Amino acid sequence: MKDDNDCVREVLAGDKEAYGFLIHKYKDKIYTLLLRMIHDAQDAQDLTQECFIKAYHYLHSFDPERKFSSWLYRIATNLCLNALQARQKNQRHPAEWDDEWLIDESSPEAILLQKEHISEIRDVIQELPEHYRIVLLLRYLEDMSYQEISAVLEVPVSTVQVRLHRAKLNLRTRFQSSWKGGKPNEVF
User: Fold this and answer.
1) What is the CATH number of the domain that holds 120?
2) Does the pTM of the predicted model rise above 0.70?
3) Residue range of the domain that includes 40
4) In this structure, are 163 and 188 located in the same domain?
5) Is 84 in the same domain as 162?
6) Burial track 99-112 (b if 16+ CB lie within 10 A, e otherwise)
7) Do 150 and 156 form a contact (C-beta atoms < 8 A)?
8) How close are the terminal C-alpha atoms of the chain, in Å?
9) Domain total of the chain
């Protein structure tokens, strides 16, 4: 399997097909992240396409000392935040989103308990400020390390840690009183 930076070098050397490898490798991950943030399938598809177009256009400015994936996620995150700001100005309401990433399929009891609270979890996550929500999604949906999230968001690792802590604290506080028998940290 090719290394991302090898593909970037090939594209910059004129091999346009090498970019297809990068698209294929990251399109689903970028789309999923954008869908979780923007909550609209068509907008997420459009932003995914725009992300890859923008990345291709600015590929010459990519620093090979950094990870390509972090650079690409940064582009996607910026596009998404811009779209969310535009949406707030237009007062559009988000569409429903897929909840499967929230379900831990380790046991039938856990699935039942978690499915009962999915709607409430989704609402609380949606209410989080974008800077908390994006950190939460990158950490738990994309399984990124603090360092990777730091690179994507271009903030210090300590800021990532604080935002993640505050997002989880917000979720735990909200659910502490309403969940009987289950603990919020079983999900997060």
Assistant:
1) 1.10.10.10
2) no
3) 1-95
4) yes
5) no
6) eeebeeeeeeeeee
7) yes
8) 33
9) 2
Q: How far apart are CA 41 and CA 34, in angstroms?
A: 9
CA-to-CA distance for 101 and 124, rounded, in angstroms?
A: 15
The domain spanning residue 66 has which CATH number?
Answer: 1.10.1740.10
Nearest to 73 by CA among 9, 29, 16, 7: 29
**Residues 85, 109 within the same domain:** no
Q: What is the DSSP code (8-state) at residue 145?
A: -
pLDDT by residue for the chain (188 residues), tens only, comes to 678 989 999 999 988 888 999 999 999 999 998 888 888 888 889 999 999 999 999 999 999 888 899 999 999 998 988 888 777 776 544 444 555 555 445 556 556 656 666 666 677 777 888 888 888 888 887 888 898 888 888 899 999 999 999 888 887 777 665 555 554 444 44
